Amino acid sequence: MNRIMELATATKERWEGQMKRMSEEGYLKDVKQISYEQMRDFVKKKEYSVQLNTGFHIKSELTGVDAILPTLFDRKWIALTPPKDSSGFITSDHPVCLMFSDPARRGKFHGPGHGIAGTEIIFPVGRRLALVGAFELQEDERELNEVGVAGVNGAIVAYAERQVYAYDVDYTYSRQNNEAPRRGAELVNDLLFRRR
Question: Which residues contact 188 (CB under 8 A, 6 or more apart)?
């Protein structure tokens, strides 16, 4: 919301255009008019707090679910399990990984949409089960070797916003194809993962 306020007041013309539209649509009845300069100063000082009610967030989420749910049902799913002696799959604060199936297309564009062919979703259900779904797959169950587990975990790490959650620090992950699996304890020093 701070970014939206910054954009809304970025130029006097933009602000005045928005105020004109809001006035024409009846949103500014009985509202004290303030100048662009006053509003810009208010935004720059950040002397406000943004509060949205929970109902707003729930409505937004449910609207998204209605749009995405049919594409999830259209995908074919493979259940992945780790070897018995593996620490298994990890998860993160952003556990659903939607990506292009072709590794050459990954990272070159913004993420694909849920209904796009040639995409896959990786989702860890728990440390002993992960799902991968794509339109082009055949439904199946597969036990991965540790290299496969490291690949799934690498995708989870790549999509994490700030946090990764694991059963223990002995999990494996790899960030690139043909890379030897790394130990989870090394993640905090991984320059590809570390951010400001």
Answer: 194
